[in-house]
Amino acid sequence: MWQVIAVSLSLSTGMRISPYNVQFMKITGYTIEGQIGQGGMARVYRAIQDALGRPVALKIMNPLFADDPAFSERFLDEGRLLASLRHPHIMTIYDIGVSDGFHYISMEYVDGGDLKQRIRDGLLPDAALDHVNAIASGLKAAHNANIVHRDVKPANILFRSTGDLILTDFGIAKQMATHKGLTATGSMVGSPYYLSPEQALGRPIDGRADIYSLGIVLYEMLVGKKPFEGDSEIAIAMKHIESELPRLPQDLSSFQPLLDHMTAKSPDDRFTDIGCLLEAARSLRDRESWSGSAKALAAGTALAAMPPAILTGALDALTATDGGMGGKADPTAAEQTVILPDRRQAQSVSADNGQIPDVYQISSRLELTVRRIAASKIGRLTVLGSVLMLAGIIVASILSSAKDDAKAPQVATRIAAQPAKRTQQAEIEKQAELERQAELERQAKLAKQAELERQAELERQAELKRQVELERHAKLAKQAELERQAEIKRQEEINRLLRSAQDALSKNKLTTPAKENAYVYYQEILKRDPENRRALEGFSLIADRYLVLATKAFNQGQDSNAKRYVKLGLQVQHDHSGLLALHNRLTSQKQPVVKSVDRFFRQVKGLFD
Asked: What is the pLDDT of residue 13?
C-alpha cells in the first residue's frame, strides 16, 4: 500500500520519496516525529502513542527486507522475547505488529544515553561494579526465562533519565528451552569485540556466554578501552579464543579474580550461572576484597565439614611451629610416618611376663604426641583441649603405675624364681624387633613404589594435556582456515554477480528476463552483503538506463513505450528525479490538438536523431 501511495505522490509532485520517508510512513495508532537511531536491519523513531499521548520508541524494520521471511521472523521474535520479560533493568515493550506493510516494535522511550558514552566520559570502579550488578540482574531474569541475549555490549545498555540502567536489543537472542534460533550451530553470531569463545567457534551456548560478554564490558568500564583489537572481525574473534585477557592495573587488582571467573576461555571455568556472579560481585562490593574473602570462606567451610580422621591427617600436614609446651616441633614431622606398637601386644607382655609398665616411657610418648598436635596451626582452643585430654591419660597411667609398684616385691620374687622365662621374653622381644624392622622396610618399599606410580601418572596426565592442547590448536587453525575459505568463496560469488550485473546492463537486460537481469543480480549481492556499495549504486544505474530508453522513446513520439520505461524505472528507484520529471511531462494536461502537434514534431525530430 505504502509503495503505491509513495509512487503516486512522487509522480504528481516531483518529490524525492524513500521507503523510510517519515511523511509517508503510517503506523496505526502512532504519530512519528523523527528518527533517533539506525541499524543494519531497522531504524528507530521517536513517536507519540495516540491513545495514551506518551512518547515511545518505534523500531521499524527496513521495508526492503519485508519479503524475506527470515528477516521478518527475526525482527518480530525480538519483540516477543522482550515482551515476555518483566524486569526494571530490561527494556519495556508496549506493542509489536505489522501496519501498512511496516514491521514495528513499540517500546519505552529512553533519553539518558548509552553505556558506550559513559565509558568515553570515564567511570569510577564503584560505578562499574554497580552497572555489572544491574546488568546481571536483568540477564538473570532473561536466563530464568531460558533466553540468552548473545549481544551484551555497551551500545545495548541504555540509561533512563532517572539514571536507571536497562538492557535492550534482543535482536539475536536465543531461547534455550525450545532451541528456537535464527542461526545454526557453526555460525558466529554477536559483536566481535564482546564475543565469547564458544560463540566465535559457532558452538552451542548457554547463559555463560552472556557472563563472558559482561566480563569484557566490565574490563572496558574499568580500563576505558576494549581488551582486544584487530584488523578484522576474524582477527578479533581469534583473540577471544586464544589470547589471555590483559591484566588490570595494580590499583584495580581487587577486581581481577572476579574478572578472571567471568572471562575464562572455557564455560566450565566461569561462574556456573548469573546468580553466582551476582553473589561474587556483591561480596566484592561489601568487602572490597573479593578474592581474599572467597578463599577464607572456602577454607573455613572445608575445615568445618572435614571428618575427624581426615582432620587428624590434615593437622599432621600443617607447618610445625613452637608447641608452647617447652619443646620445639620437628620441622619434618608432617613428612614422617609414625608406627605405634600394638596396645594389645603390650598388655599381653605385661600380664604374661609380669614386667612393670614404664610410666616415663608412656608419658614421653604422650608428650611427643602433645607437642606434635600443639605444633599444628589449629588454634589455641584445640591445643588446650588436646592437652587436657592427654594430661588425663598421663594421670591415669601414673596411678596405674603406682598400683603396680605396690606389687613389685611379689613380682620380683617371681622373676628371680623363673630365670628361664626372662631369657624367653628377651628372645620374643628380639623377634618382635626384627619383624618391626621388616615391616618398616616393606612400608618404605611400598611408599617408594607408590611415588614412582604417582610420578608416572603425572607424566601421563601431562602428555594427555599436551595432546589435547595440540588438538585444540589444530582445530582452531582448521576453523580459522574454513572461515577464511568461506569468506573468499563469498567474495568470489559477489564478484561473479557483479560481473553478471554489468554484462546485463550492457545488454539492456535491466529487469527482464526473469532470472538473468541486472536487478536480480544486484538483489542477490545484497543478500550476501547488505552494505555492498556497488550493488546499492547498481539500482541507480538501472534507473538511469530506463531514463535513457524512455527519453529516446519520448523523442520519437512513442509515448506508450516511454511511459512503460518510466514505470519500470520508478519500480527500481522510486525517487529518481529524471524519471519523475519525464513522467510529469508525459502525464501533463494538454489539449488533444496540442498533444498531436507535439508528437508530430517529436517524430520528425526523431528521424534526424
From this structure: 35
* CA-based torsion, 450, 454, 456, 460: positive or negative: positive
Strands 147-148 and 165-167: unpaired
Supply angle C-alpha 534, 536, 539, rounded to 5: 105
Domain co-membership, 67 together with 165? no
Domain interval for residue 419: 333-453
The answer to whether the predicted template modeling score (pTM) of the entire model surpasses 0.85 is no
584 phi and psi angles, rounded to 5 deg: -65, -40
Q: How far apart are CA 45 and CA 106, in angstroms?
A: 10
Res. 333: pLDDT tops 50: no
Domain count, the chain: 4
Taking only the tens place, the pLDDT of each residue in 443-464 is 989 999 999 999 999 999 999 9
Cell matching residue 328: 620445639
The answer to whether residues 86 and 161 belong to one domain is no
pLDDT digits (tens, 9 = 90+) for 52-75: 999 999 999 888 877 788 778 878
Q: What is the pLDDT of residue 480?
A: 93
At a CB cut-off of 8 Å and minimum separation 6, what does 563 contact? 550, 583, 586
**Does 68 lie in the same domain as 129?**
no
pLDDT digits (tens, 9 = 90+) for 191-245: 889 999 999 898 899 999 999 999 999 999 999 999 999 998 889 999 999 999 9
Pair 99, 27: CB distance under 8 Å? yes
The whole-angstrom separation of Cα 26 and Cα 101 is 9
Q: Which of 54, 3, 14, 62 has its CA nearest to residue 30?
A: 54
User: Which residues carry out catalysis?
Assistant: 151
103 plus 123 within the same structural domain = no
Residue found under cell 531474569: 141
The interaxial angle of helices 533-555 and 559-572, nearest 10 deg, is: 170
In a domain, 491, yes or no: no
- The grid coordinates of residue 3 equal 509503495
Domain at 77, CATH number: 3.30.200.20
